[in-house]
Write a structure and sequence with these properties.
This protein is an alpha/beta fold. It is built from eleven helices and 21 strands. Helix 4 crosses helix 10. The longest helix is centred in the last third of the chain and has 25 residues. The two termini are 43 Å apart.
């Protein structure tokens, strides 16, 4: 029996939908904006992920099937039709390159306009890249007007003749970007935006103060672990590691000789990332393959398996944080999030290896609806995609002008999709 669709507002055009395409699960978050700062979560869809390896599509048909299943689940849960989504992209193919650009201000009044910022960003994109690499995003670090530096907000409306910018160029493999976008489009939905997952997650688990004083975020997913370092309110460095939760599960499978599903179960129920955090070394009964006599192990044995792999994650994360060259300036420490951060003792192990204060990142910044259901590191990217989209719409709808005025600009989902589609058509 078909479910009756609920009505929220005049149409489904104002929906915000975040699509987190992970290696082990697909997550869809459906929200409706209340105002420029608040959203109601009205639906959640989750489905097992098949067809991806370490965040990269390796079987398009299975990936499409998994994404479609998650979207169907979200539509049933929310009672609305999903027409377009913001999708996250991650993986160890992501790179961060520091660059700079300079443009002249040709306005007779010497007032910096939005078009000047666009030219500045376009200028920064002119760089020699390998043929298999594509620019995903350009993140301004600092603006300099006529030699006056220290400008971290948009300089639109300010006066000047020469405008410079220090930027971070985020790149990824053309094939990975193209494969992911095609899988989403093949599910019958449009692309509103494609966002680097660490940036998306940061919107839900980091606050502005942390980003200003300096913080590193480690998002431990199923196939990849993503690192993002922030300072002075902007992304300073990002990288991906091909070691994450699924490898921990595989280690348990190999060490104990059990099925993957059973390994995942005992990891979640009895697993510890740090042996020293175990209070009672209880015996664990483990289901054998093909219904044979159940096996027995202990929490400490399971913890040794988990700790060895999680140690690798944080040691590699420490190297990437150091590569940011501002590791000594992270006064807010480290925030860990993602499904892999939920293993007991993970925070303590991270503190020991990174030698910094570590906190667990739980999605915040939501105002209503199913907020309790998404208050878990598992939904950090999905919720972050919603919040990132909300901010992007607000910035586009209110374009700054000279003299502090703001012009409201009509925006449609179709116009954004057209831009994204043109971007992919160039590949």
């Amino acid at each position: 029996m078909a479910s009756k669709k609920k009505k929220y507002g005049d149409s489904s055009d104002d929906l915000l939908v975040g699509l987190d395409v992970g290696t082990t699960k697909i997550c869809v978050i459906v929200a409706r904006p209340k105002d420029e700062n608040n959203v109601d979560i009205i639906g959640i869809g989750i489905a097992p992920s098949h067809g991806l390896h370490r965040g990269i599509v390796v079987n398009p048909a299975k990936t499409v099937e998994s994404i479609r299943a998650a979207i169907d689940d979200a539509e049933l849960n929310s009672g609305v039709d999903i027409k377009s989504v913001s999708v996250g992209i991650a993986g160890h193919h992501i790179r961060c390159i520091q660059s700079s650009s300079t443009v002249g201000i040709n306005n007779p009044d010497r007032v910096i306009e939005e078009d000047d910022i666009t030219r500045l960003i376009d200028q920064a994109k002119i760089m020699k890249l390998p043929s298999d690499t594509r620019i995903i995003d350009v993140v301004p670090q600092e603006y300099i007007i006529d030699g006056k530096d220290g400008i971290f907000e948009t300089p639109v409306g300010m006066f000047g003749i020469r405008l410079e910018a220090k930027v971070n160029i985020i790149t990824g493999l053309v094939s990975s970007i193209d494969d992911l976008s095609k899988c989403v489009l093949d599910c019958g939905v449009d692309l509103d935006d494609i966002v680097l997952e660490p940036i998306a997650s940061s919107y839900s688990v980091l606050d502005e103060t942390e980003k200003k004083v300096g913080v590193a975020m480690i998002d431990i997913g199923g196939g990849t672990t993503d690192i993002a370092v922030f300072k002075k309110g902007v992304l300073k460095y990002t990288a991906g590691i091909g070691i994450a939760g699924s490898l921990v599960t595989n280690d348990i499978v190999e060490a104990l000789g059990i099925a993957e599903q059973e390994a995942e179960r005992i990891k979640r129920e009895f697993g510890y990332a740090s042996i020293s955090e175990i209070l009672n070394d209880d015996e664990i009964v483990v289901q054998s393959i093909k219904g044979k006599i159940p096996k027995k192990t202990r929490k400490s044995i399971l913890a040794r398996i988990i700790q060895a792999r999680m140690q690798d994650v944080f040691e590699l994360a420490a190297i990437e944080i150091k590569n940011s060259q501002i590791h000594n300036e992270l006064h807010a420490g480290v925030v860990i999030t993602g499904g892999g951060s939920l293993i007991k003792g993970t925070k303590e192990l991270a503190e020991e290896i990174l030698n910094m204060e570590v906190n667990l990142g739980i999605p915040t910044g939501l105002s209503g609806g199913l907020i309790k259901e998404v208050e878990s590191p598992i939904f950090a990217t999905g919720v972050g995609l919603i919040l990132h989209r909300l901010k992007a719409l607000d910035e586009i709808e209110h374009v700054p002008l000279a003299g502090g005025q703001r012009k409201k600009k009509k925006l449609t989902a179709r116009s954004i999709f057209s831009k994204v589609k043109e971007w992919f058509d160039e590949i």
